[in-house]
């Protein structure tokens, strides 16, 4: 039987690229404030990220000067600034996958009354939502463009395991950090990963989020490595088994067209 380890190897980081501490710390601050529900002061930020307060302050001031953060003088707290919106807009406007996927997602959401999501696989740790179409049903999955999730979670995670080129040992280490509403044993998850690789699609029925059925198909590059996924979310039993099979077939057709659009010129 084939294993996830037999998939094409994941690209390695370029050894010529050396870490730049100031950049790494600035990115960590931006990510922290993106997660925070309230603005934070220097002490809270430096404590959370284990930074020297003076170093943290210098980076914060630089980010404020670039309008990536804003500073509230009264409370002496920091939050994301309007400059982030300009960067995000540029990403969205130049994201070939999101532009190509959006009409397909809109069609899927309208026809099947499901939430349809386009996801980019960043690495073994994270996937990010880059396109979204909500259904008109009262149910709506709480997800926004830019939302990040652990790469191995839910249905997309099974596809990352199947087509990401990672060894079983690497998958196990990352899998052990995941939080599920209805947890799976790693061995059972790995068996579903193998089925996903054979079938070209997979599902998560209530494991990640109780009562929610999530379908996913992969977008593969010319080397059969996963780059994106197309995902739908609905209430468990909202779709009949026949409808689920038909929807899955449509998702696979959309994924094949997207793969051709994205990678035909390589």
Describe this protein with a few key phrases:
single chain; 266 residues; alpha+beta; Beta-Lactamase; 2 domains; 6-stranded antiparallel beta sheet; two-stranded antiparallel sheet; 18% strand
* Low-pLDDT ranges: 1-13
CATH topology of the largest domain: Beta-Lactamase
Main beta sheet: 6 strands, antiparallel
* Run of helices and strands: HHHEEHHEEEHHHEEEH
Question: Using DSSP, what is the number of strands?
Answer: 8
Average pLDDT for all residues: 89
Globally, the shape reads globular
CATH class of the largest domain: Alpha Beta
Q: Which strand order does the major sheet show?
A: 5-4-3-8-7-6
What's the alpha carbon Rg, rounded to whole Å?
Answer: 20 Å
CATH architectural arrangement of the largest domain = 2-Layer Sandwich
Number of helices: 9
Category by helix and strand content: alpha+beta
How many domains? The number is 2
Helix share of residues? 40-55%
> N- to C-terminal separation?
31 Å
Which strand-content bin applies to the residues?
15-25%
Q: CATH superfamily of the largest domain, please?
A: GAF domain
Folded structure, characterized:
The protein is an alpha+beta fold and 266 residues long. 45% of the residues lie in helices and 18% in strands. It has 2 domains: 21-86, Winged helix-like DNA-binding domain superfamily/Winged helix DNA-binding domain (Arc Repressor Mutant, subunit A, Orthogonal Bundle), CATH 1.10.10; 95-263, GAF domain (Beta-Lactamase). It has helices spanning 21-35, 42-49, 53-65, 83-93, 96-112, 154-163, 168-175, 186-199, 241-263, and strands spanning 69-72, 77-80, 115-121, 126-133, 148-150, 202-205, 212-220, 226-235. Strands 5-4-3-8-7-6 form a 6-stranded antiparallel β-sheet, sandwiched between helices. A two-stranded antiparallel ribbon has the order 1-2. The chain starts with 20 loop residues before the first helix and ends with a helix. The model is unreliable at 1-13 (pLDDT under 50).
């Amino acid at each position: 039987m084939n294993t996830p380890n037999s998939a094409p190897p994941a690209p390695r980081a370029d050894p010529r690229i050396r870490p730049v501490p100031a950049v790494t710390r600035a990115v960590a601050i931006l990510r922290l404030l993106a997660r925070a529900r309230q603005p934070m002061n220097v002490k809270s930020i430096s404590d959370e990220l284990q930074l020297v307060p003076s170093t943290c302050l210098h980076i914060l001031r630089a980010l404020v000067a670039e309008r990536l953060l804003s500073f509230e003088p009264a409370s002496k707290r920091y939050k994301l600034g309007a400059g982030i919106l300009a960067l995000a807009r540029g990403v969205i406007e130049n994201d070939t996958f999101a532009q190509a996927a959006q009409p397909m997602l809109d069609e899927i959401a309208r026809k099947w009354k499901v939430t349809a999501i386009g996801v980019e696989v960043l690495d073994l740790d994270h996937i990010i939502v880059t396109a979204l179409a909500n259904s008109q049903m009262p149910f709506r999955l709480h997800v926004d463009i830019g939302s990040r999730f652990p790469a191995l979670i839910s249905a997309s995670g099974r596809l990352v395991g199947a087509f990401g080129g990672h060894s079983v040992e690497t998958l196990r280490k990352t899998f052990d950090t995941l939080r599920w509403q209805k947890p799976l044993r790693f061995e059972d998850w790995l068996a579903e990963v193998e089925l996903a690789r054979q079938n070209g699609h997979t599902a998560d029925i209530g494991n990640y989020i109780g009562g929610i059925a999530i379908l996913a198909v992969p977008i593969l590059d010319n080397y059969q490595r996963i780059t994106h996924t197309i995902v739908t979310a609905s209430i468990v039993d909202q779709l009949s088994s026949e409808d689920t099979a038909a929807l899955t077939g449509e998702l696979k057709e959309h994924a094949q067209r997207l793969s051709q659009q994205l990678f035909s010129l390589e």
